[in-house]
Design a protein that fits this description.
Belongs to the class-II pyridoxal-phosphate-dependent aminotransferase family. Histidinol-phosphate aminotransferase subfamily. By secondary structure, the protein is an alpha/beta fold. It has helices spanning about 40-50, 65-75, 85-95, 115-120, 165-170, 225-235, 245-255, 260-280, 305-310, 335-350; strands spanning about 25-30, 80-85, 105, 125-130, 150, 180, 200-205, 220-225, 285, 295-300, 315-320, 330-335. The chain folds into two domains: about 15-35 and about 260-350, Aspartate Aminotransferase, domain 1 (Alpha-Beta Complex), CATH 3.90.1150.10; about 40-255, Type I PLP-dependent aspartate aminotransferase-like (Major domain) (Aspartate Aminotransferase, domain 2), CATH 3.40.640.
Amino acid sequence: MSKFWSPLVATLVPYTPGEQPKIPNLVKLNTNENPYGPSPKVIEAIKTELNDNLRLYPDPEGDALKAAIASYYQVDRNQVFVGNGSDEVLAHIFYALFQHGQPILYPDVTYSFYPVYCGLYNIPSNPVALTDSFEINPEDYKQPNGGIIFPNPNAPTGRYLPLDQVEEILAANPDRVVVVDEAYVDFGGETAIRLVTRYPNLLVCQTLSKARSLAGLRVGFAVGQAELIEALERVKNSFNSYPLDRLALAGAVAAFEDHEWFEKCCQGVIGERERVTGALEALGFEVLPSKANFIFARKPGVEGEALARGLREQGIIVRHFNKPRISDFLRITIGTAEQNDALIAGLKSL
């Protein structure tokens, strides 16, 4: 603490990102990165952009990327917002759309950046308990609120809420924004973007970090009706008019253009997820149903922290959350077949 700090700073509880250890030959299954690299077309597009134009500012509007996203999802370009990773997009969403003086609602077990944004912007919140089976119950979101946000699939549970239940939440909250955070939707879920034209209170947020293997480029976006997008643009242009650099814009456009590579990678992750789930269940683990690129699992009678420590001693890193309700669970990223084999062997030995 310093006398130079603004008063708010001392009250902040910052987000803790997943560990990025610099250990050789590590089996790294803790941060939900895609085990398969980006499309070769992405690499070529970035190489092409490495020229004298780097002395120039990038397009502040990101028009080429907005056009690619709009074309992919069959929406209008003015229904698309782009930012420096979905975390920045989410930060703008909280600031632009959730400051109504009432608590916002989000699940009690969910993405831990949500309470961080609430602390940063002084937004009251009312976390809503998941069911005993770690599912979102739409009935619980039919209460007064200043806005609603939830990941779908949820993180860290991996559980997916069908779109008819998403619509139930939307219909029950016509005067509040409902944000569906779809970082993992491409691994077996169905995007809510197709509902945007019917619900002016719906905003869908996605990232290119997961299914499109571009965590290192930091590209995220949101899709909603034009009035919601305008609010995000106003905040963005009051903060940073150039959130995406030339390399990120070029790579992101190329990622949307190579649908074949995208589908191949997603199906590869899905296939390995089902294989790992079966292997862990055979070892006595309880594995929650997942539509993400990770699984959430526990072994009855065994502490999650002990399992995580035992794997780490074998050079295998997974994510353990020392939090109420989930302290015995491990969140395990789906890796390559070889990484997953190492994980299964490591758990067998414990």
